[in-house]
Design a protein that fits this description.
Helix content is 48%, strand content 2%. It is mostly helical. Helix 1 packs across helix 7 and helix 5 packs across helix 6.
């Protein structure tokens, strides 16, 4: 699907369809379940007690640290800041050059860029419009704009939207993202809080 055909309402429906698939439910299932704390066997005449984490290691701690440092990825390239306030109201096609050479992103990173867009350019709740006259975006509009600014692929956008739907379901909202965004009484703080919770959820799941 060409970039120009991705609109907030289409993204909303695509994200909901992804959320309903069995594959997606397997991705999100159990992401927040804590692993039980290991227990050391009791010695004669004493009660069982929690194991010391060092008992679980097969190599010295110093070696683990050294191996971890060597395996760290190189520092990411310097991020380009968002265009200024004028960039918020310019046609998206004028930002197309920013996509050149941009790598794929995890959904949690894409969501963070969408949050930055809402913070710097503003949030709006006009139904299914990418932006208003001041350049403010709705939730889905922020996801689409982040993609158009070069942050993540179309697949990344879809999965980021599906993570928002997942978070909304956990909060008891059964509809799409757009109706949540324009629900009476909704505020920009609500939208940012939803993105923060979604970012944590996706990051905890390794995405």
């Amino acid at each position: 699907m060409p970039t120009t055909t991705l609109t907030p309402d289409r993204l909303d429906r695509r994200a909901a369809r992804i959320h309903e698939t069995e594959a997606w439910q397997q991705i999100v299932a159990g992401w927040d379940i804590a692993v039980p704390e290991p227990v050391r066997p009791a010695s004669a005449g004493s009660a069982p007690r929690p194991a010391d984490w060092r008992d679980l290691l097969s190599v010295p701690v110093d070696q683990l640290i050294a191996d971890s440092v060597r395996s760290l990825p190189p520092a990411p390239p310097r991020e380009r800041p968002l265009p200024g306030r004028l960039g918020a109201i310019l046609p998206d096609r004028l930002h197309a050059w920013r996509r050149i050479g941009q790598p794929g992103l995890r959904p949690s990173i894409h969501l963070a860029y969408a949050r930055q867009i809402l913070t710097e350019w503003g949030w709006q709740n006009t139904p299914y419009r990418l932006r208003n006259a001041r350049g403010a975006r709705c939730l889905c509009g922020a996801l689409v704009t982040a993609h158009r600014l070069g942050y993540g692929s179309l697949d990344t956008v879809d999965r980021a939207g599906a993570w928002i739907v997942t978070e909304l379901r956990s909060q008891g909202w059964t509809g799409l993202i757009g109706p949540w965004n324009r629900h009476p009484g909704r505020t920009a703080s609500d939208a940012l809080a939803l993105l923060d919770a979604t970012i944590r959820r996706a990051a905890c799941a390794g995405q």
